[in-house]
Every structure is written in C-alpha cells, then in structure tokens.
Amino acid sequence: MNKHNIHIKKGDILNGKYHVLSHIATGGMSEVYFVEEVNDTNRRWAVKVTNMESKLASKLIDETKLLSELEHSNLPRVVDFFSTADYFFLVQEYIDAVSLSDYFQLYNNQLPLDTIIKIGVQLCDVLHYLHTQKPFPIIYRDIKPGNIMINKDREIKLIDFGIARKFQQDRMKDTVQVGTVGFAAPEQFEKKQTDTRTDLFSLGALLYYLLSQGKYVYIAQKPIKQLHKRLPKSLDKCVTHLVELQPENRLQDAREAKILMLKAKEEWENKRNRKWDWTLLRPISIISISIVLIGYIVFSFI
Fold first, then answer.
1. Is residue 91 within 8 Å of 18, Cβ to Cβ?
2. Distance of CA 184 to the CA centre of its chain
3. Which fold has domain 13-93?
4. pLDDT tens digits, residue range 219-273?
5. What is the pTM (predicted TM-score) of this model?
6. Spatial separation of the C-alpha atoms in residues 186 and 243, rounded to whole Å
7. Which of 14, 50, 74, 229 makes the best surface tag, with the fewest CB within 10 Å?
8. Rounded-to-integer distance, Cα 33 and Cα 8, Å
9. Is the peptide bond before 247 cis (omega within 30 degrees of 0)?
C-alpha cells in the first residue's frame, strides 16, 4: 500500500505494453514506476500513475496535455498516456539523474561556481522556450531544487508541471495562489496575476540559494555579494535584478539573465586564468632575478 492507494507491483503489465520493473518514487499526486516495453526490452520509461478518485488526478491530466505539446532538451519527453477506470498513466522519458536538492547536499551545499552558472544558463534556455510559446506563454511557477534533475554531465531536466499554466493577458489574478515558499515570487501568494517575470524571480531565488550555500533570499535579506565574496560582477547584477520584489523592477526576459550569466562565466574564467598565469610566472621571475644578481656579483670581481 502507498499513500496514493495505487495497487501496482513489480511484474505487472500496463495497457498490455509496459512491464513494471520497479517502483521509483512517490510524488505529491502520483506514484512513479520504472518500466520496459514488452516487445522491446531496450526501451525503458518512467510512468507516473495517479488514482482517478484523487482530486489531484485532473492536475496530472493537465500536465500531460501541456507536456505533450512541448519538445525541448531540458524537458522530459512524453511517450504515451492512457487511463483505466482506476488510474491515469503518463509514460515519459526515464531520466538517469538525481534531483538538484540531493545533488546540492552531496556537495555539502557548496557547488562550484561554474556548475551553478551552467544550471542557470540551462534554466534560462528552457524558460525562454516556455515563455515564448504561442498563442499563450507557459508560466512554470514552481522552480526549486526538487523539480530540477541533474545528471553526471551537469545537464538538467525541469520536471513536474503540476501547477504550470498558460498565461492569458485578460486575467486580473490567478485562480489559485500556489508556489513553494522560499522560491516563489511575492505575487504568487497575493491576489495578483502571475506572468513570465514570476518565473524569473524564482530563477533568481534558486541562484541565490545555490550561491549562498542554502540560504533563502526572503530570510537572509542580504545582497548576494555579501554571502559569496568571489562573485563575478555580472552574476551579482543578474541575481540582484532577478529577486526584485516588484515585477517591473526585475529583469524582464530570460535572455537578459542568460547574457549576464555567460558574461559572469567569462569573468570567472579570466580571473582564474590570471591567477594561474601569475603562479606560473613566479618561478621564472625568481630565476631571472637570481641570474641578474649572479651576473652582478661576477662582474664585481672582474
């Protein structure tokens, strides 16, 4: 028995097509299983299953509809979906990765700066893709470490579109106030309309969290440069302008954030190169000085 009252076990065949290999995880509204295709055991997928009696079943169905329209390297690919009288099934690409929250803990909350920048740049790419969907931009609304999967090559997948929605300009406010405390923008808990800038705040809050070794911007209430002394100027500017409380004061486009992060990467690499160049030159300088001194002594005795 599991918390979602879903009776599926190892060895079961789903829809006459998928052989259940193991249970992977329990989510907020579903159970996730690792499966292989009956007719081709080399094709393996992850299946999200929700109980049709659950009030949250409609959210997985909405997530399926949304994801099935999308195709991006930083999003899980939808393979199939179907339902029975008891359950709804979403078959997705299996992601061989860990959550960013687990990855962060593995590094004792101290990720290398280049890794943080790489994560941020990839998030900018996928957010720009979502925000430029036609006819309606998609607002993700739940950027946090638990919803980001990262593999051994530091490539990410943004998962769990349960509270994502299509933005419609004529709405004055969201139907429901939702989000994760610590990463959600202020407007997500107020009677206001969320838009693409809501995701940009959450991106900034995530970067702040990773750069500060796990501190939340709401609680710390300090400029990020005070918590990360070696921060490149462009990254400081990026994070500072992303976490502005008023949407109109934030960066307005994910591409702006990406440009600043790529510039920060360049600043960081140049700084490291200068450091290593000085280290390499020091022995040469000492040798040069020694040669000059020896020459001076020799000529003094001639």
1. yes
2. 14
3. Phosphorylase Kinase; domain 1 (3.30.200)
4. 999 999 999 988 999 999 999 999 999 999 999 999 999 999 999 999 999 988 8
5. 0.85
6. 10
7. 229
8. 9
9. no
